[in-house]
Amino acid sequence: MRAVSASLIVLLAPFSLGAQDTASYSIDPQQSKVEIHVGKQGAFSAFGHDHLVAAKQVSGEAKFDAQKLDQSSVRLKIPTKSITVIDPGESEKDRKEVQATMEGEKVLDVAKFPEITFTSTAVSHSKKIPDGWELTLAGKLNLHGVEKPVTFPLRVTANGNELHGKGELSILQTDYRITHVKAGGGTVKVKDELKITFTIVAAKDH
């Protein structure tokens, strides 16, 4: 019996080790940061200003395998109500007006679409760098009730029990049926393209 048990351990060892290679992580909302940069355009755009918007609550989970990066994955969730206009240097009154417009039916419509989600579908073009990995992440972004495929570069580092992901992507508001809002009597309009920058920190599950 001992010989049989020993043989089973030897045979199953590679599978148990492989299962341990993929670790599960939970997104840390306190350390994670997602910012949305909204530019301006139009004949009188010099009289307007760019907007900086931050997502205050980011949650989700990740699975990471340093040996098989293509089997890694991530899922993120952001409540639209938590998205806040930062706009440093602007008055509180102006920030509140932009916030109200952003939450309204023409833009995020937070009452109808309470969440933004991202679910990865593939990891490719991975490259080892001194402090981590550079890779390309593909996935589905669900925003304003519309789901679209997105692909963007991502830099990943693993430090003890923490996983860090940093990158940026650009999307078009019109792809997600979001209306271009105007200001200054309709002479200043925000750009269709939004740039999203993010730093995601996740803690290893125990």
What would the keywords be for this entry?
single chain, 206 residues, alpha+beta, eight-stranded antiparallel β-barrel, disordered N terminus
Précis, in short:
This protein has helices spanning 2-21, 92-103, and strands at 23-27, 33-41, 51-55, 59-64, 73-79, 83-85, 115-129, 132-143, 146-159, 162-172, 182-183, 188-204. The protein is of the alpha+beta class and 206 residues long.
Main sheet overview: 8 strands, antiparallel, barrel
Total strand count, please? Answer: 12
Strand order of the largest sheet: 1-4-5-7-8-9-10-12
Structural class: alpha+beta
Distance between the termini: 34 Å
The amount of helix comes to 10-25%
Shape category: elongated
Notes on the protein architecture:
- The protein has helices at residues 2-21, 92-103, and strands spanning 23-27, 33-41, 51-55, 59-64, 73-79, 83-85, 115-129, 132-143, 146-159, 162-172, 182-183, 188-204.
- The protein is of the alpha+beta class and 206 residues long.
- The chain has an eight-stranded antiparallel β-barrel with strand order 1-4-5-7-8-9-10-12.
- Strand 4 (59-64) and strand 5 (73-79) form a beta hairpin.
- It starts with a helix and ends with a strand.
- 19% of the residues are buried.
- The model is unreliable at 1-20 and 42-48 (pLDDT under 50).
